[in-house]
Design a protein that fits this description.
The chain has 8 helices and no strands. It is an all-alpha fold.
Length: about 190
């Protein structure tokens, strides 16, 4: 069977049985999320198109995840946002953060409506953390990362109206102002985010 077939079986048949298991949150869910994330970021041979393209794999996986229970979706969101490089420093860290921001676009496009307010808030905070780090850095890669973080912030905020409730509270609103808007005001007429 193909991975696509297995995802359908897991989502429709196995998931309800597994959720009642004591091993669900400790073993099965982390393992499934790690496997699916690995499939989402795996590079295949060049020229993959149609059903074999990375975009199609991501779409298939995210569509299946969107139908999973809230605890599974929430776990997956935390898993991908914690896979962005953590507290490490250096070029690898920038690369992982850029990878997370790139992954965030299809996640938001395919799962935003099914994510809880808390999961959306977690994603916005993760993007703001990356933006804050990029703003404070003088490395050449920081500008590209800052631009990508601003784009994902705009995408995330545009998806909030699609059923996630009150994601942006007063504290988050102030942080968005301080990190994404205020620093750009002096150069507003010349800077493209």
């Amino acid at each position: 069977k193909t991975s696509r077939d297995q995802l359908v079986i897991i989502s429709t048949t196995d998931m309800p049985k597994w959720q009642s298991s004591a091993a669900w949150s400790e073993l099965l869910l982390p393992t499934l999320c790690r496997l699916l994330y690995g499939k989402m970021i795996a590079k295949r041979k060049a020229g993959g198109s149609g059903r074999n393209s990375m975009e199609q794999r991501r779409k298939t996986i995210l569509s299946a995840l969107a139908s999973w229970p809230e605890d599974a979706r929430s776990y997956f969101v935390r898993f991908i946002s914690d896979s962005d490089g953590g507290e490490s420093t250096g070029d690898r860290n920038w690369h992982k953060k850029a990878g997370f921001l790139a992954m965030l676009e299809p996640v938001l496009e395919h799962m935003a409506r099914s994510l809880s307010t808390e999961s959306m808030r977690h994603l916005v905070w993760s993007v703001l953390d990356i933006l804050q780090e990029a703003e404070a850095s003088t490395q050449a890669e920081a500008k590209r990362l800052r631009q990508l973080a601003c784009k994902r912030l705009v995408l995330a905020l545009s998806k909030i109206d699609e059923g996630n409730g009150e994601v942006v509270d007063g504290e988050l609103r102030m942080r968005i102002w301080r990190l994404a808007i205020e620093p750009r005001l002096p150069k507003f007429d010349t800077e493209l985010v």
